[in-house]
Structure formats: structure tokens, C-alpha cells
Amino acid sequence: MCGIVGAVSANNIVPILVQGLQRLEYRGYDSCGVAVHQGGELRRSRSTSRVAELRTMTEDDGVASGTGIAHTRWATHGAPAVHNAHPHFSRGQIALVHNGIIENHDELRDELKAKGYVFESQTDTEVIAHLVHHLYAGDLLEAVQGAVLRLRGAYAIAVFCRDEPGRVVGAREGSPLILGVGTESGTQADPTARYLASDAMALAGVTDRIVYLEEGDVVDLQLGKHWVLARDGERFKPTEREVKIVQAHSGAAELGPYRHYMQKEIFEQPRALADTLEGVEGITPELFGDGAYSVFKNVDRVLILACGTSSYSGMTAKYWLESIAKIPCSVEIASEYRYRDSVPDPRTLVVTISQSGETADTLAALKHARSLGMEHTLTICNVATSAMVRECKLAYITRAGVEVGVASTKAFSTQLAGLFLLTLALAQVRGHLTDEQEAQHLKAMRHLPVALQAVLALEPQVVAWAEAFARKENALFLGRGLHYPIALEGALKLKEISYIHAEAYPAGELKHGPLALVTAEMPVVTVAPNDALLEKLKSNLQEVRARGGELFVFADDDTKIESSPGLHVIRMPEHYGALSPILHVVPLQLLAYHTACARGTDVDKPRNLAKSVTVE
Ligand code: F6R
Prior knowledge:
By secondary structure, this protein is of the alpha/beta class. Helix content is 35%, strand content 23%.
């Protein structure tokens, strides 16, 4: 999704801006651009191609300056086209980039048009550029303060003015923005430099001195100095924000022997799980942060808020929490929860789950829960420096490492590991975990990396199935109990990267409607662990076979489900108990991956999707 980089420096900052965009590329974008102050005027390069092309354009055109801003755009208002790409200019004087969505852009556009402003794009961003220009009377900081007071919606902006070289002003509300302070070391080696970015990762290797701007902040960057102003109603007051030392990873991980990042990340799961569980010697609430014991003691229920794949890890956790920790749990899609009337209970542990920690809907749902008086908050998140971690009292940081592929894989399995630990910690505090049970669960968790290796070795068999899937346009996924969310995740993976329409159902629900879809043309993927529901599931498989449906079953070794005409079986290892979902999701990830490869889609950057969804 959209990315921002901006800087003032005594040196040329264009290579740093472009490199920053490259580091944000994995988040998904459809155009990119850079603007600088050069020769007393604004200069810009924009492209609907890759950032590498933008780099060549800036080099060929000799774009160089110590003041500039850059952006990767993920289209919301207006098609992905050069004229809609950021930075946007206003009357050759103001240059501006923006992440987020301005809700009152129509009203502002009409107002500015009436004042004679001409719009070259369909974006809401151009409205902000003209608004800043309209309010500009010689001081960019004042103009930006005035402009943001008029905006409704979410924004992170970076802006500079032709008449004030060596100055960039930023502001944020609802979209992340960080300030970087230059150092003697790093790629730029300029302690007077100041940077803006939507994510610390954009500045990896440039500076590790980061200020996390808070909601409503406006920031003024000049050579060797910066000021933060905090919003207080309709006014802004100077404020101090702590400079933190943050080791951001570049994300530009090598592909190694893999064809795509997604494949690499699927195969990284044994290591990601080992890293996530490293240092877990025993179950204790303090794994989730200081004060977790008293929080866990004071809650009677769990409310999980998440989106997409992360919501499926939450759905899996609901089964664990209710059966092992005996605590009622509800799972809500964040974009729904934030807008519906619900009945709050202050004795609720609100758990957000997020790979990126920046998902706008999940952050807003968290805020909503807090506004309803639910103050016990915990996040399971893969980015320690993210807004989600900063906003929640307690956290478990999964150590999946940077996930580049848009389709989440290793983040999901490590979320499950974090959620299982949460289940055990709550069970312990609530008196439902004996020492022996704790030891058994920990043993099974520690063995997961080895068990996963055995599942990954099934790849050649999955490749053979993928050839058949690549010719289909629809697929059904079935699972029961703990593995129903895994079926949902398998269907989501298939649709998002292969563009095959896929739906998942709890297998017992089939006869209540979806069975009507089953014909010889409909592949039915089934997750078949050897759990208490196996016999019921076998009956559901019969229902499909009786209608001519073709079954593709991932069956635990001890299930005794054998291949026969119309029934294809890939044998999983023996049943892995409560942690079985972490194993069963892997062949579904591989199936989606190889089907997408066979169809020739852009696996790591599927159409219309972004890695980090920072807009509503
Ligand atoms: C699907 C996928 C998305 C994300 C969702 C939430 O493969 O990755 O469904 O899970 O956008 O993102 P996070 O976890 O970053 O909050």
C-alpha cells in the first residue's frame, strides 16, 4: 500500500528517497514518484512502472537535491496512471505526497475550484496540495497546520515549498508517519539530515534514530533540527517526542533458491516458528509483557479483532481458548466491529492480531473497543515497532521476519504459535493447566519445526495436484472444528494469488446449500486430521463422492482414508493434536502457490492487493 519517504540533507537525497521506496515496494503499489527542490523550482519524476524504472528516470534526468519527497501509490481515488501518481504539485510552488483517504475531498475540491484551482488528477491528495497552497503566506508549517484542520479522514503527508528549500513538513492522523534523525554513520552519514517515512523499514541502513509521530502531530524538518507540534483541538502546541533506537530490517531479503518470496516464506516456517518460540522456557503470563498476570486475572472473556488471514488465526484460537483455557471468546472482523453496536464488557481481554501492525481497520477497531471502556489490550504482531504494539498494553511479537509476499504465510503460522501460548497462559492463570499438561504442550510446540519439515517434503505431490487445479475456475474447501478456519485460509490463499474462485465451508454445512454446486467439475479440498470429528468428516466426503465431486484430501497418516477413483489423498504425518492446524495449513499454502505458478500470475504481488492495508 502507499509509502512515503521524505528528507532534507546537506547531500543529494534522491538515491535515499528511491532506495526507501524500494524497501517499501513489497507492500504493493501501482505507481511511484519523486519530487525535489532543484534550481529554484520543483522537479518531479513519476512512473506507473517499478521503482527501478523511477531510479533510471531520475538518473537520466539528473534529478538531484538536498530536499525532496517520494511516494509509492496504491490507487484509491483515480486510476493507476501517471497523472494520478504522487507527488502532486500546486501552481509550481507546493509539492505533496499523501497516504490515507480524505473523506471530505469533494467538498474541498469544489471550494478550491471556486477559487480558481485547476485539478490535474482524480486524487484526494491534489486537494490537500491546493489547500496548502491556498493557505500559504510565507510559512509552510503554518499553511500545513491550517490545512490539516480542514481535513476529515486519514492522512500522513510530506510537503515542501519552492520558496523554502531545506524544509519539509509532515503531518499524520490515522496513517503512520515516522521521523528519522540523521547520524554520522549509515548510507547518508549526515547528522544534519532529517527524514520522514511511513515505515521505519524505508530508512533501514540510513538511520536507526526514529521518532514515532503520534495522532495529530505536525512536524517541521530542517537541516540539523526538527520540531514536533501536537494537536490540541483546533490548535497545535510544541511537544517533545522521544528519539528511539530502532534496528529496522531492510526487507530486501535474498530469494536464494526460491522462485518467489511466497515460496521462500512457506519454506521459512520451521525457522520462523523456532525463532518465535525461542526463549520460551515455560508458560507464564509475563511472556506477554509486564503486568500481564494482573490483566489475565481480571478478564472473563476474550475479544479478538483482526482482518483477513489474521482473523483466521483468531478463529482457530477461539477453539483453543474455549476448550483449553475455558474462557469465552468471540472473533470479530475489525472493519465490521468498528461500526456496529456491541455490548461492551470491561472485563474483556481485547486481542488484536496483525502481521504488519499497521492495518487501519484493526487499529480503528482497537480504538473503538477502548472507547467502549475495554482497557485490557494485547496484540499478537510481527512488527515490534508498529502502531499496534505501541497502542496495546501487552504484546507477543512473532518472529516470522519480514514477510514480502503479499499473501501471508509464515506470519499466519507464527500468529498461531503466539495464540497457543496465550491460550496456555490464560489456562494457567484460570487453573486449567497442570504442570504435566504444560510440559506436554511445550514439547509439542518445540517439535513443530521438525514436524513442519516433514510436511514441506510433500511439495512434489502438491505440485502434481496444482496442475489439475490450474485448469479450474472454482474450488470448495472443507474442514471441521479447529480446521474449519484452516479451510478458510486455504480458500483465501487460492483466490488471492491464483484468482480461482474458492469458498470454504464447515463440512457439516455442505448439505445445507453448497452441495448444490458439487459436480465433476468442482474440486473439493478437504482438511482431514484424525481428530474427534473424523468419522463425521468421512460421511461428508461420501456426500461429495455420491454427487460426482472430485476430492483432494490432506489426511493424517492414521485416518485410513485411502485414494480411490475421484478421491486423491496426500498423507500428512500422524495427528498432531491441538497444534495440528499449524501443520495442515502448509500444504494448502503450497497448493495455492503452485496453482498460481501454473497459471502464471504475479504470485508475490497479486492484482489489486497490497501488503499493508493502511486505508479503510
Ligand atoms: C492474506 C493477507 C491479508 C492480511 C490482512 C490483515 O494473505 O495477508 O488478508 O492478513 O490484510 O493484515 P495484517 O495481518 O497486517 O493486519
